[in-house]
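User: I'm preparing a small set of examples for a lab meeting where we compare how different chains pack in three dimensions. I only have the primary sequence for this one, and I'd like the structure in token form so I can line it up with the others. Please keep the answer compact; I'll paste it straight into my notes.
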Amino acid sequence: MESKTMPTMVNGLDQDALFDTLEAVKKDPKIAKFVFRAKNHWQTGGVNETVIKDYYGVGEEHCRPGGFHLVNDEPPELLGTDKAPNPVEYVLHAMAGCITTSLIAHATARGIRIDEVATQFSGDLDVQGFLGLDPKVRNGYQAVKVELFVKGDADAATLEALGHFARSRSPVFDIVTNGVPVSLEVTAEPSAAAAA
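Assistant: Understood. Below is the structure token output for the 196-residue chain.
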């Protein structure tokens, strides 16, 4: 009877599965292609909800039963009811999560055990751009500051380099700092009142 070997767990990830994934992608780069999707519906005021359920990856469609429901709102100063983070705060959340995940994955690949990762993000935004009051002010963040703390079983220089490497491999950091082509298709339907 063949015995199963226990996976080599590093930082909560299966290191053997990570290397198997790398080899599989090297052999068949098509399985590296993913398409992520989100559907949003306005509720009232500044409140809207995004449902993230299905995606394409590793050559096939996937669907999560029930999906994930993320609510967006605005703080009262921006006419919201403060029931949830606003979209630009979700950008900070996405970048924080992605840099952390990238750091853990690359530390695991190198066999570096991590004890703690903590990040703090702050984004400077001037709403004059969003409000259309000053065309010289951009609509989005003017600057984002990231403070990253990492503690693990390597020397400080290695851990610092790992933090910078994780940033350079983070898909969300890449999206935010390099931009990405975004197309918009609008379907408009006048309400009954507008048609009357």
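A couple of notes for your slides: The first strand starts at residue 9 and ends at 10. The radius of gyration is 21 Å.

User: Perfect, thanks.
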